[in-house]
Design goal:
The chain has helices spanning about 25-40, 45-55, 65-90, 105-115, 120, 130-155, 160-179; strands at about 10, 15-20. It has about 180 residues and is mainly α. It has a two-stranded antiparallel ribbon with strand order 1-2. The longest helix is centred in the last third of the chain and has 30 residues, at about 130-155.
């Protein structure tokens, strides 16, 4: 919304909620801040950014792009929770009887499936920015699923402690990138 135009916002006692349709380009600045917070492992800040933005926008069911954008925001909240668990590396820790009971792989798979199901919301509409964001989130969740599978395969094939294995893998990546 710009100054000088008539706004369709409703003022409430708590905050201001806009009823203008949300478009993909509205998400770009938010997702830059979100990505910066996530890259610094500031998961609470990232979640707070998304939740505060969602609190100022009311979903409009008649707009396919608005619906897609709100679904993307929900996916971002789920990604924050999954990333927090991913960075804790708990999915690599063996439980009793050498079992690993991690739902993280399933969580990322479900997020990816939800993002893929958004094709139904999009239909034939030309939603370039929101569609680009959706595809990038699908790529991101696919990469996480692949990495978890790689870690799991290393653990099955190796008797090395998970954290030592991750340390060795990280060091080899750092050495490769520095040369």
């Amino acid at each position: 919304m710009t100054t000088g135009t008539v706004s369709t916002c409703l003022a409430t006692a708590a905050d201001i909620a806009c009823i203008d349709p949300l478009i993909g380009s509205d998400l770009c600045p938010l997702l830059r801040q979100f990505g910066a917070a996530m890259s610094k492992a500031r998961f609470d800040d990232a979640r707070g950014l998304i939740e505060s933005f969602r609190g100022t926008r009311v979903p409009i069911s008649s707009s396919a792009e608005d619906s897609l954008c709100h679904l993307l925001l929900s996916a971002c909240i789920q990604i924050v929770k999954a990333e927090s668990a991913y960075y804790s590396l708990n999915f690599m820790v063996t439980k009793a009887f050498f079992r690993r009971e991690s739902t993280l792989l399933l969580t990322y798979t479900q997020i990816k499936a939800e993002l893929c199901r958004m094709d139904d919301v999009i239909g034939n509409a030309n939603i370039s920015a929101a569609e680009d964001i959706r595809r990038r989130l699908i790529d991101f969740t696919s990469a996480r699923v692949s990495m978890i599978n790689v870690y799991n395969s290393f653990l099955v094939e190796s008797s090395i402690l998970p954290y030592l294995l991750l340390y060795c893998l990280t060091q080899s990546i750092i050495n490769f990138n520095s040369s």
